[in-house]
Design brief:
With about 80 residues, the protein is mainly α. The protein has a domain of about 50 residues. The protein is built from 3 helices and no strands. The chain is flat.
């Protein structure tokens, strides 16, 4: 997937860069996420809030998958 993103960015100018961002299913935020937020100008309290929101979204998504693990068909409500 990262290779596809890099190919999409290549040739579109010097201002584009492919930066992988990792947030684990149990809410672990890798240093790449903090680095990206700093690069786009999100720092301090805004950075902490954004990371907290990412953690919450990852944990809620993981929990939803766990609840749906035995269903053969997943459908949005």
């Amino acid at each position: 997937m990262i290779a596809i993103c890099k190919l999409g960015c290549r040739g579109r100018g010097p201002g584009l860069e492919c930066i992988p961002v990792e947030v684990g299913c149990r809410g672990f935020v890798a240093s790449s996420t903090s680095r990206l937020l700093k690069e786009v100008g999100i720092r301090g309290q805004a950075q902490r809030k954004t990371i907290k929101e990412l953690v919450t979204a990852a944990e809620r998504s993981s929990h939803w998958l766990w609840l749906k693990r035995k269903e053969t068909v997943w459908a949005a409500k």
